[in-house]
Amino acid sequence: MRVSKRESAADNVSDKGSEKTVKDDAVHLKRQIGLLPSISFIIGTVVGSGIFIAPKGVLINSGSVGLSLLVWTLCGILSTFGALCYAELGTTFRKSGGHYTYLLETLGPLPAFLRLWSEFIFIRPAVASYVSLAFGQYVVQPLFMPCAAPTALVKLVSMLGVTFVVAVNCWSVSMAARTQMLLTFIKMFALILIIVPGIMALVNGKTENFQNAFDSESLSLTKIPLAFYSGLYAYGGWFYLNFITEEVINPNRTIPLAIIVSMVTVIVFYVLVNVAYYTMMTANELLMSDAVAVTFASRALQGVAPAIPVLVALSCLGALNGGFFGTPRMFFVGAREGHFPAIFSMIHIRNQTPLPAVLFLYPLVIVMMARGEIFQLINFASFSRWFFIALATLGMIIHRYRFPDLPRPFKVPIVVAVIFTIVCFFIVGLSLYSDPWNTGGSCALTLSGVPVYYLTVKKSYIPERWKKAFNTLSLHLQIFLEVAQQEVKTY
């Protein structure tokens, strides 16, 4: 039993204007994300803590300055190929949900459920915890320099940051979008602050750190996939617009255009930022730094160096906001399809936000931050995330072969899709050899969803007593949260 939806007057209305008013007033996720918010959403989610943390991981696993810059460029190109594939998927399948929806439509319910399960169990909590703690570290650390910041205070500030983001996304979709736009402009300003003095120094002849850029004795082919993982982690987020397809205005035009503009912008900025880093720091100095942007600022931006940690913290907050804006839509769609409890497919009747799905993530992130054991899970997240992305683009290729006449408003060249899919599977497969413990753990956690799927979704073996108790709990939650099923089909 569920709380009854508000009665619709559409059946009694004869004129189109009144019917439109009823539809606008009905409980549903409205299309209110235009082109500029879409671009800021992608850039704001991609540019987070990664560009300030990943350079160290890329350099240590690539072995040289020149090769690390090549990895950054190739990671950007590879991410753009994937983003273009998702542009086709997003305009072919007009549902929100991203990876989950595309796996469901092309490869079937089991792979889709496993993607949903892995996102819930470890991918999103790990990534959100990592970004949150980076936010807390950059906020607190300047207050205690040169001493280390208290761990408890860092975690407390991190939790406050997560709480703020969750509250904004629960309150209003438009407010979350405006917050994302503001934070995106701030973080791009931070990157410009890094790029300009670095490039000016390079133009003025400071090129000694680029001498013998490809000369490395520590290069190991087994470490190259880990270098790509670090780079791809920094580029991660290009797929989040596909999570909110049903809320994008004119998605056939907006999604491809936003993806292309965003990815070109991010690649240019990322490569220039790394060039600026290497201009002012040697490879060894970069590897020894725990906060690359802060070390850079202390040398190149002494006048505004204290502002850099604040700008980096706001950058992390923007990435966190983008994650909490997009990922709950995956759970929302999964619940709508019957793969998650129905309460998570409900919408707040006044604020028109997917309130239960947003709140769903909050306790998991808080628990993981409190434990602090997240860095190993980042490797878990990278393996599983890219494995399912490769499956989604493989599914796109198969679907295009099976249904060649299906309308596709945006069609990526098949060679781009094939190259992206092969490279992703190659990186994922080679990482099993390079880091078998973490990637094996990721496989195990992902496959743990198989019995859950067959016991709860495919065939329900849940005792009736448990079902009744869960339905009663869901009813009380629905009343308390003031949520209802959507009343307008948005796909």
TrEMBL record:
Name of this chain's protein: Uncharacterized protein
Localization terms from the record: Membrane
Gene3D superfamilies membership: Amino acid/polyamine transporter I (1.20.1740.10)
Keywords: Membrane, Transmembrane, Transmembrane helix
Membrane topology: Multi-pass membrane protein
Alphabetized Pfam families for the sequence: AA_permease_2
GO cellular component, one term: membrane
Keyword hit for Methyltransferase: no
Molecular function GO terms recorded: L-amino acid transmembrane transporter activity
Segments traversing the membrane: none
InterPro entries reported in the protein's UniProt record: AA/rel_permease1, AminoAcid_Transporter
Source organism of the structure: Cirrhinus molitorella
